[in-house]
Protein 1
Amino acid sequence: MFETIKNCFKNKEIRKKIWITLLILLIFRLGCYIPVPGMDADSFAQQINDVSFLELMSSITGGSLANATLFALGISPYINASIIIQLLSVGIPYLERLSKQGEEGRKRIAQITRYVTILLAIAQSVGIIVNFGIQGGAIELHLFGGNAIGETGAGWIAGIFLTVVYTAGAMIVMWLGERITEYGVSNGISLIIFVGIISTAGNQLVTKFTDVFGGNPSVLWEIAGFIILTVVEFTAIVAVDLSERKIPVQYAKQVKGRRMYGGQSSVIPMRIAGAGVMPLIFAFAIISVPAMLASLFWPNSGFETGVTEWFSGSSPYWYGQLIYMVTLCLLIFAFSFFYASMQFNPEDVSKTIQQNGGFIQGIRPGRPTADYLKRINNRITLFGAIYLSLVAFIPSILGIVATALSWNTDLISVFSTTGILIVVSVALELDKQLQSQLMMKNYKGFLK
């Protein structure tokens, strides 16, 4: 990858794209430090850390959500909107037609996604303000003569103000991501998530090194353990992420006019982790809904206590953690198979192979080929779901071990395995994008 980056800087056009990308990412990081008036960042961060999904979202925003800054929502509303539109494209005929209309259809879908992003940003802003403002006093506003949100005075005006600010921040982040995609080197949304997670880990490491220079050399053991653990996790995730099952396809020779076509062999690559991190994000989002609803509508009630006891990863009782883990595992499996069915359609692949005169050795064309591909896809998806389940549970297992051994868990939790999975996936995709752009430039130079 470093060799690819060095070669990219030798090309003027790609070097310009890289500098544009770095400049936009710098603007994004500056926005993550712009404070919003009326917010108690310490109380806000404490409540964010009590919910695993919100903690993951905070790491994606580079700690901006926990610090209650301008870009607190980050890119999450746009991600959720994209997922919703992608799912609806399967069931709504209008969106399905747009997805098949080429460039114009994609532009129309992108515009619809932006509108949905605005709605989701408003909904998330209102949820944050109402939930954390009423429950923990994280929002104590004295704007326009108002008190805390929900109290007498003009607090509702301050609530509208914060909703506008957070929604505007989410739209600015979405705009920055689209500019990276248009003028930069790769998918801007993925790079923003990548930078957010990396900066979260970087901030924690800076704090630890400050402790070392402040006269606490024992922290060096924590840093060494964190580096070793990160290297092992990176190696394992890269090995699984790059692994794939290649199904050989043979194409028969065809005579068209005076020329002969076909007679070649190809492969159908089927990745084990083809769904990426999306099943994890969806599973964490769904499983955190009961706790969020309980704290929002029934605070300090028996229902909230029951949810915390029976259905929480931070439950003080073993049975609560067990129920939480089993439910999370089932959700990961369900979303893994759902995404696999969306990304790979055996019937369409079989039809395409047959129309081009191809066949899989030992399998009859048509329906038998589709059944064979479906069976292989289900097996691969099963192993992919097991892999994602292990990825989800490793932080909890490491946290239990560290607590039992009286270790500090700050650095262990700074890089959740889910975050590492996202970082590795984006880094590999960025490397592929840079290599493809280098190849295009080399071809152009050869033609000239």
Note: Residues 140-153 have pLDDT under 50 and may be disordered.
Protein 2
Amino acid sequence: MSAVTIKKTDYADRQDAADLVDLLGYYALDPMGGGAPLDPEVRANLAARLQEQQNAFSLIAYCDGEPAALANCFFGFSTFSAKPLVNIHDIVVKTAYRGRGLGKALFAEIEAIAAENGACKVTLEVLSGNEPAKALYSSLGYGDYQLDPNKGHALFWQKELAA
């Protein structure tokens, strides 16, 4: 059995920042992450920009000391509950480490942090064709967001803005 450690990322720590960028870069190259490398400017500035965000936190799962999985999360606010929420913006487990419970361990830590901060829920987005991720999320109690099933489930939309 491999030794698994989950660490809250210190964005100012050089090694933590390198592990964060490497794991996000790995995710970006995957078809579920867009299939393209991170822009060099993003690689150079990501940790510093995340450190500026008071609502951000990242978790890295290490397997036998090697960075194996990442979750980037942000606190938001639920107006209907008048409480904070946590959104999982990115989550990735390197292929070589899948099936070892790292995803479940990251979710347990995210949910613990959310509970410690009085959050009413944890949210995430998932591509409709990402069946392995959907199976994991469903097994952990996540599902489509609905206010009224007769009105359908929520969709995640975006609009790119000029830089």
Note: The chain has a mean pLDDT of 95.
